[in-house]
Description:
CATH architecture of the largest domain: 3-Layer(aba) Sandwich
Number of strands: 17
CATH class of the largest domain: Alpha Beta
Structural class: alpha/beta
Number of helices: 19
Strand content: 15-25%
Strand order of the largest sheet: 4-12-11-10-9-5-8
Distance between the termini: 59 Å
Number of domains: 3
Radius of gyration: 30 Å
Largest sheet: 7 strands, mixed
Amino acid sequence: MSILPPGDDATTPAAPPPRRHLPALDRLLRDPAAAALIERYGRPALATALRAELDRLRATPATALRPADTAAGAVLAQAGERLEAAARPSLRRVFNLTGTVLHTNLGRAALPEAAIAAVGIVAAGPSNLEYDLASGARGERDDHLEPLLCALTGAAAATVVNNNAAALLLVLNTLAARRQVVISRGELIEIGGAFRLPDIITRSGCRLVEVGTTNRTHPRDYAEALGPRTGAVLKVHTSNYAIEGFTAAVGEADLAQLCRVPHVPLVVDLGSGALLDPRRYGLPHEPTPMQAIAAGADLVTFSGDKLLGGPQAGLIVGRADLIARIRRNPLKRALRVDKLTIAALGAVLGLYRDPDRLAERLPAWRALRRPLAALHDQAARLAPALAARLAGLATVESGACVSQVGSGSLPTQGVASVALVIRPVGRRGAGAALRRLAERFRALPVPVIGRIHDGALLLDLRCLEDEAGFAAQLAALRDAPGAP
């Protein structure tokens, strides 16, 4: 007599694991639901995604699988999610609410509408990048920017490469390869990403000659270092830090006088590259290329995407004979900019011809000039809606904070600002909760990047121009991953 429960007859075969019922790849590709995916992503891409999903299911323990997981519709849906994730651009727009206006990691200067339109025009088809329309002969891509740069800086000639480090590398390699470059010890800076000026000088094929001390360098220090092996004297604007107290430095005019008799070129690296005096907008003075040229510098290098407010580029202005030598250097071709950069930079430089309206048209300066009253009003509009979305998770209030220019520009000068101050509810695990809140904002359709400070997540409003776009996506905030 059997003692097995009904239905548990020893001869009844066990139900097969769900993965035995996985549909074949060719069947999935013929499924009506696959047609839309093929239309959007292509048959080869769908086949690859389906293979990956089938492999995942085969590797999953049978006890963790349900029959619904192996259905054709479920497999196709998972493959579609894979394809959508793969098709999403890695480089995306974000909201920069960090309080750093020119944030290196977030793309530095936002381009003005004029530059965006100029890029669109030349990106859409052929252009006269290196073609002289008047003569019908080959042209020079520098011709699109040189007249503007010379008019704005007072230089005799100009050329452009892909960033300021490249500009300095090219200048030194042209003027002083296998020769000496004299520089003050107090100007041997380190720039972003742990790149150091001495390394750039060495890579340019030059020998570094340090003079003076970290805090004090005098004209006699340079004079004693100049000799027949000197290829250039380099003066670097220490834009990303400041030394205060017992200090001394030699200005461009005095250095130009020292370099004149031995005919040694004076190169001035300004880094951030302001084409107007920031005091115009209530910020401290920043040296300009115009001042360096007027003081007697032979060549000046500076960035396009910092205080200038344009695309990433390295600008070189100065003596015509030296610029001609730079253009003949084979490295110039390796470091040249493309048509999109030329279009954007040309449009930005064009805005400087009307300095009275520059701050209205250039996003970087527009952000720096936003009045506190406007930021307080913006915070008052946004805080209630944000608090409602984070109810039970965090509190939201407006508070005073300090923004900074960023990208090594005006490092000691803060700009008063207003932030949305977000604090997680409860004190236990506050640090982890803050990190999860920050993750939640980064997971929004347009990621929001703030900063954690003093036990709160701050969303600095100085750079928030698209208030409507920011507010519209708050509805997705509770559904974003990273819940505290």
